[in-house]
């Protein structure tokens, strides 16, 4: 049976419509990072049952929404939402890991971040905190580095290159002592067992000439607090709200942290007060701008460089430690 030209055109149009619809709704393996407006953290933090501080200003946290990219968004950048960044799947979830497993891991990272932040803040307030750093927790390992054949999520590194590594900062310092491509001796715990292995380093893609082993790390510690601290951000996971948590805890025990300014912050905290780099700085900076905050505190280095690219008129303050963040905030004009 011969079809008329009109019928053929109609079938072609219908096929094109179905194809475009499928390309729009079907997800790819990769993800989009999307900005969210910065939000006040006061209502999410309770320190010993104290009421939220009165007055102007406040501490804000910034988070990032993550979802699968649709096919058309993947191939046509103009179709992505404003402020979105396409991120390869292996940078979001480990090979063989499900999205639910990644969510559970992010929730555990958040729990650790909360306790470390509370310890850092209450110690700064002069309260007695028992906090013993036990090593550097491996939160994830890049799939394309030699360390992927040696380390596993959950390992706790206690020494590298002959140096004790109780904190993430001490691990970074130890790895910096060798040239990229050299191997380093590691000692670590895995499920209570002490292990020793050598790992070949690689060159940092962000800092040419600096050796890294290709792991994302956090703080393993035994912490006892003098006050009950409850922090609940709902479905938000990961360790990157450590810095705003600590600022808010310190504010709720009576310290004038923000001087009446609206202060947004991001950065993971180590037990020694070091501020560690985090992801999604483009989206977090855009979220801080959208909320109209006065200042944004970010980890120094590559995080600060990325934030400055999207800051516009927003003041960005790079910090390396919690103590440096407090010093910077003391220089702000009172509002």
Can you describe what's shown?
With 335 residues, the protein is α+β, with helices and mostly antiparallel strands. The chain folds into two domains: 36-65 and 101-128 and 228-330, Ribosomal Protein S5, domain 2; 130-221, PDZ domain (Pdz3 Domain, Roll). 30% of the residues lie in helices and 29% in strands. It has helices spanning 5-25, 71-75, 99-124, 168-176, 242-252, 281-291, 302-310, 322-330; strands at residues 27-35, 39-40, 45-47, 58-61, 64-70, 85-87, 130-141, 156-160, 163-164, 183-190, 193-200, 202-203, 211-212, 215-224, 229-231, 262-265, 268-269, 275-276, 295-299, 315-319. Strands 7, 8, 9, 10, 11 and 14 form a six-stranded antiparallel beta sheet that branches. The chain has a five-stranded mixed beta sheet with strand order 2-4-16-19-20, with helices on both faces. β12 (202-203) and β13 form a beta hairpin. 39% of the residues are buried. The model has no long low-confidence stretch (mean pLDDT 87).
Which descriptors apply to this entry?
single chain, 335 residues, alpha+beta, Ribosomal Protein S5, domain 2, Pdz3 Domain, 2 domains, 6-stranded antiparallel β-sheet, 5-stranded mixed β-sheet, 20 strands
């Amino acid at each position: 049976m011969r079809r008329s030209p009109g019928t053929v055109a109609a079938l072609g149009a219908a096929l094109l419509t179905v194809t475009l619809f499928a390309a729009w709704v079907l997800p790819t393996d990769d993800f989009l990072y999307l900005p969210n407006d910065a939000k006040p953290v006061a209502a999410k933090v309770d320190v010993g049952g104290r009421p939220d501080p009165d007055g102007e200003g406040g501490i804000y946290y910034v988070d990032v929404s993550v979802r699968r990219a649709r096919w058309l968004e993947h191939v046509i950048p103009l179709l992505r939402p404003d402020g979105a960044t396409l991120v390869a799947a292996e940078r979001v979830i480990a090979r063989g890991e499900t999205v639910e497993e990644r969510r559970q891991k992010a929730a555990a990272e958040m729990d650790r971040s909360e306790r470390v932040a509370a310890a850092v803040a209450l110690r700064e307030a002069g309260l007695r905190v028992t906090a013993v750093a036990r090593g550097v927790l491996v939160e994830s390992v890049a799939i394309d580095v030699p360390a992927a054949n040696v380390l596993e999520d959950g390992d706790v590194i206690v020494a590298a290159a002959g140096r004790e590594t109780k904190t993430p900062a001490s691990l970074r310092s130890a790895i910096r002592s060798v040239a990229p491509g050299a191997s380093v001796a590691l000692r670590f715990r895995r499920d209570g067992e002490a292990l020793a292995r050598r790992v070949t380093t690689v060159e940092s893609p962000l800092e040419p000439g600096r050796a890294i082993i290709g792991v994302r790390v956090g703080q393993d510690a035994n912490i006892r607090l003098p006050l009950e601290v409850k922090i609940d951000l709902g479905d938000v996971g990961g360790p990157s709200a450590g810095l705003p948590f600590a600022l808010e805890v310190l504010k709720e025990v009576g310290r004038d942290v923000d001087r009446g300014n609206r202060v947004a912050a991001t950065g993971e905290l180590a037990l020694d007060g070091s501020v560690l780099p985090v992801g999604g700085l483009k989206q977090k900076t855009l979220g801080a701008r959208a909320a109209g905050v006065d200042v944004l505190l970010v980890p120094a280095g590559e995080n600060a460089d990325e934030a400055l690219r999207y800051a516009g008129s927003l003041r960005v303050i790079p910090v390396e430690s919690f103590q440096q963040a407090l010093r910077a905030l003391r220089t702000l004009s009172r509002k």
